[in-house]
Amino acid sequence: MPGSIEKRGQRKEAEKELALLFADVKEGKAISAKQVTVRALADRWMREHVKPNLSETTAENYRYFLDSAILPKLGHLKVHELSTYAIDSFLSELKTEKGLSDTSRRHYCSTISAMLGKAKKWKIIKINPMDEVDKPVPDTEPAQFYDDEQAKILIDALQEAPIKYRAAVYIALFGGLRLGETVGLRWGDINFKSAELSISRSLQYIPKRGTFISAPKGGRTRNKKGDKGEKKSNKTRKITMPRIAMDCLRQYKTWQDEQAAQLGDSWQGAGYLFTAWNGKPMHPDTPSKWLHRFLERNSLPPLTYHSLRHTSATLLIAEGLDIETIKERLGHSKASITSDIYGHALKRKDKESAVVLDNLFADKA
């Protein structure tokens, strides 16, 4: 309680400071880094840039990193006092005092860097001190995935699973969708004639916010409004699904229609594929939790729901599909992201290429 009262008091002080700064801006006065505290800058950045332009999940994450450590430690400083040395010291304390990993500390780096990057654009600072910070390098582990034999065993096991969850796994395994994109699908996004899925929304969950619709990752614009005020990407991703997946979706549609008919007025569906018993959207975590229990029951290797997406991409690379096509299918904004994540599979294909060339010119060796 005292902590929350103190935090509210700090916010009020920051708001007063912001009001004075806005008054200076209206009068045409330049804002100096010597006038602005890090806390006031953070509040302005969240209010004017993050919340209007970025997804609610991103905004929530930034808010967490600010409130959990950045502002308690650095919020009182004037922005011009936030030197490379001060940030380096802060990051060191996160490791020595809080025991945070390099991956966690990297998130704090990204938050500070994004905030100061905007401050530079606003002409509050001329140089971003984050540019010279020695950023923690997280240990990168290869993405988890099943090989083709393991994927076939998984598919066989799924034939005894409830059709709802079989469909949810198929969509990630054969379509490479993220969890939020899967539970955000509506029947109107499925074209059974062309075997296409249209991906234009993601269903997310944040404890304080609850369940909400956001744009899927990879969309360039986050502030375009769709139906009922939901944020949508300016680009709908369309992917073609294999017959095995479409047959499963047809069976699932028939099953869901029967469920809705049995419930009558109790069915509160809004056209979502994956729902609770009464037709309301399924909680975004449900398919992931179900998959974990299913793999354990069937003595299959552990795999997260997101790793089904990795499996999909890895299998496509193994079959020779080009990176640009896979990038579009996965909804990555850049092909370099795809290459970085699936470097393990690309390396294997590179070795296979050498064997092909050896065979081609064997008579010249």
Description:
With 365 residues, the protein is mostly helical. The chain folds into two domains: 2-132, Tyrosine recombinase, N-terminal domain (DNA polymerase, domain 1), CATH 1.10.150; 148-317, hpI Integrase, Chain A (Orthogonal Bundle), CATH 1.10.443.10. It contains 14 helices and seven strands. The chain has helices spanning 2-26, 38-53, 56-74, 84-96, 102-121, 148-158, 163-175, 179-183, 243-263, 286-297, 305-318, 323-330, 335-341, 343-360; strands at residues 190-191, 196-199, 202-206, 210-214, 224-225, 231-232, 237-240. The strands form three sheets. Strands 1-2-7 form a three-stranded antiparallel beta sheet, with no helix packed on it. Strands 3-4 form a two-stranded antiparallel sheet. Strand 5 and strand 6 (231-232) form a beta hairpin. Helix 1 packs across helix 2 (38-53) and helix 3 (56-74) packs across helix 5. The protein is globular.
Describe this structure in a few short sentences.
Helix content is 55%, strand content 7%. With 365 residues, it is mostly helical.
Indicate the CATH topology of the largest domain: hpI Integrase, Chain A
Q: Note the run of SSEs as H and E.
A: HHHHHHHHEEEEEEEHHHHHH
Measured distance between first and last alpha carbons: 78 Å
Overall average residue pLDDT: 84
CATH H level of the largest domain: which superfamily?
A: Intergrase catalytic core
Structure class = mainly alpha
Sheet of most strands: 3 strands, antiparallel
- Compute the number of helices: 14
Which percent band covers the strand fraction? 5-15%
Q: Give the overall shape.
A: globular
